[in-house]
Amino acid sequence: MAKGLTAGELRVEDQDTLVQKLKEAKEELFNLRFQAATGQLESHGRLRAVRREIARIYTVMRERELNIVTVEKESIDG
Q: Which N-terminal residues, if any, form the signal peptide (predicted)?
């Protein structure tokens, strides 16, 4: 998964891509948690970063659901 995704980058993606990125981020978070539990985790900061990426994806999805920000609107403004 790409490192450091911003909300602006996510807003221009289509819904299927967002769902795929969400799935990848959740898998990565699971693996990081497993590594942390077994004492093999090297970068604890990555846990926080992945949780924030998941939150950003959910936020963008919710904005679209509520028609707060649309793909077309962000493309014109951005």
A: none
